[in-house]
Automatic annotation (TrEMBL):
Pfam families recorded: Polysacc_synt (PF01943)
Topological relation to the membrane, as annotated: Multi-pass membrane protein
Main location: membrane
Residue stretches spanning the membrane: 12-34, 46-68, 88-106, 126-146, 167-185, 191-216, 244-264, 297-317, 338-354, 374-395, 402-422, 428-450, 462-483, 495-513
Keywords tagged on the record: Cell membrane, Membrane, Transmembrane, Transmembrane helix
Localization of this protein: Cell membrane
Superkingdom of the organism of origin: Bacteria
Alphabetized CDD domains for the sequence: MATE_SpoVB_like
Protein name as catalogued: O-antigen/teichoic acid export membrane protein
Length: 539
């Protein structure tokens, strides 16, 4: 069972990673088609949609999985099937209600974002794209409970495959829709973006087809399990959903944290910039750089680090539940060190190579470069918040997730407008930094209190990681300076060469320092020894 669980976790992590990878790189052709005007409009629709979908579904796969797995372990298979049947109906209702709320409220949301007539977009344009994306809410919650049910049976393949298929179908429709509308039909940008956001619904259909196929293939086996049901536990529907709600609330809060911070920017950025005399069209251009272009790139190191770190969290939960303090300390040490080791150099490298990286993904833009340079280090906070919030769930202190998120959001909300007035785009980034820093501090204090964990080893190793990152930064900066004598970051292809060469130099040096100091061995154990044997490396 344990090997099956490990294999399932790997499959799910791989599926999530592929899905995120695809979700990142489609922005290159998409930006080429719709430019800043289109990405700003796209983001006006997607941020509120993400919040709605997080509330409607975040935590449902995980909480349903936890519930089903719990009762399967005591051979009460009928309880999980009862949840599944009633859950399908409930999620269908939740999806339709969420769709109606977002569809009806679209004009109000639009006027909260755009009120000035000299903006690139109009309230009517924003209303149109929000309503186009709202249809996805009908289908996505329905999928979430099916995924959770399969995961509860230790079957991660359906979730992983459906996520990847959903993403592929969505991206194909995004790009094909925008291309046909703009290049073939010579239609408007609003129509093109509306097709692009409606792709979330089409992608959902693709994912749902995959899940139905898996259900058809697995149903005979699931029915056999029902025949083995002990039937000694009778849990009412009310008790089932009370338990599910308690499981899911922490996941919801973690899921909506980043979209909420983005939504605060969406509500305040344009208005504040116009109030200090910035032209409305320029304000939207800057908003697009902040909340779409830069955000997509900053999420890269976050996704990589959290994917590795969060795989350690189940072990944290196990050690805490069993009262194994030594094991808990070891797992927390590993989690925090892996997070720092992967995130810090990636964030620093992204900031250093901001100009060529921004050009490779979008175009050469001094404003975009400046924003990315400042925004890139915030990736460390994004990753640290996600991991500390997950650890709090592992040590049964998830109520502090509510406190930390509320404090973080309150700080962002209070400081965003005055800081934007003082520092423009950098002010919005600073407000995000202060909000996340406060939330992380609360999480760390709660972790220390409930797990009796001491951070001394992490601090010592963290200093070593900082030193290695500094050496990597210096070497990469010198290489970048030398290469720019022959290559220009203003040329897209030369910028790509700059990124590849500097990336290889920086990552290679950082990896070498980790090997020579044995730091990698402490963090990744036997897996590193196997790699060294495979590639005939010494040290």
């Amino acid at each position: 069972m344990s090997s099956k669980l490990i294999r399932g976790t790997f499959i799910l992590t791989l599926g999530t990673f592929i899905s995120k990878f695809l979700g990142l790189f489609y922005v290159i052709p998409f930006f080429a088609l719709v430019k800043e005007d289109g990405t700003a409009l796209y983001n006006y629709a997607y941020v509120p949609y993400t919040i709605f979908i997080s509330i409607a579904t975040a935590g449902i796969p995980a909480s349903v999985s936890k519930f089903v797995s719990k009762y399967n372990a005591i051979e009460e298979y009928a309880v999980g099937r009862k949840l599944f049947k009633t859950g399908l109906f409930l999620m269908a209702i939740t999806g339709i209600l969420s769709f109606l709320v977002l569809y009806v409220s679209a004009p109000n949301l639009a006027t909260m974002v755009i009120s000035e007539k000299d903006h690139l977009s109009s309230p009517e344009d924003v209303t149109t794209v929000i309503r186009a994306v709202s249809f996805a809410l009908i289908i996505v919650p329905f999928m979430s409970i099916i995924r959770g049910f399969f995961q509860g049976h230790q079957s991660m393949g359906p979730t992983a495959v459906s996520q990847v298929v959903e993403q592929i179908v969505r991206i194909v429709f995004v790009l094909a829709g925008a291309f046909v509308v703009l290049k073939v039909m010579k239609g408007s940008l609003v129509t093109a973006v509306s097709f692009s956001v409606f792709a979330a619904f089409i992608g959902g259909l693709g994912g749902l087809v995959v899940l139905f196929w898996y259900w058809y293939k697995r149903k005979p086996h699931l029915d056999e399990l029902l025949l083995q049901d002990k039937g000694t536990v009778d849990v009412s529907v009310k008790e089932i959903y009370k338990e599910i709600l308690l499981y899911s609330i922490p996941f919801v809060l973690v899921g909506i944290s980043n979209p909420l911070f983005q939504f605060i920017d969406q509500l305040t950025f344009n208005r504040t910039m116009v109030s200090i005399g910035v032209d409305g069209k320029l304000a939207e251009h800057m908003f697009s750089i902040l909340n779409f272009q830069s955000q997509k790139l900053v999420i890269i190191p976050v996704s990589l680090a959290t994917a590795f770190s969060l795989t350690l969290v189940p072990a944290v939960t196990k050690s805490f539940t069993e009262g194994d303090q030594k094991g808990l300390n070891h797992q927390l040490n590993q989690t925090f060190q892996v997070l720092m080791y992967l995130t810090l150099p990636a964030a620093v490298g992204l900031s250093l190579l901001a100009e060529p990286i921004y050009n490779v993904f979008y175009k050469h833009d001094p404003m975009g470069t400046e924003v990315l340079q400042v925004y890139a280090p915030v990736a460390i906070l994004f990753a640290l918040y996600a991991v500390t919030a997950a650890i709090l769930q592992g040590v049964d202190a998830q109520k502090f997730n509510i406190l930390s998120l509320l404090v973080g959001i309150l700080i962002k909300l209070s400081l965003n407008i005055p800081l934007i007035k003082m520092m423009e785009t950098k002010g919005a980034i600073l407000a995000t930094v202060l909000g996340y820093a406060a939330a992380i501090l609360i999480n760390l204090i709660a972790i220390k209190h409930f797990s009796k964990y001491r951070f001394r080893l992490v601090v010592r190793r963290g200093m070593l990681i900082i030193i290695f990152t500094g050496i990597m930064y210096g070497a990469t900066k010198i290489a970048y300076w030398l290469l720019t004598m022959f290559l220009s970051p203003e040329s897209k292809w030369q910028a790509l060469v700059l990124v590849i060469i500097c990336g290889v130099i920086g990552a290679g040096l950082y990896f070498y320092l980790g090997l020579k100091s044995k730091l990698i061995n402490f963090l990744f154990g036997n897996r590193v020894d196997k790699l060294k044997e495979k590639f005939h490396l010494k040290g």
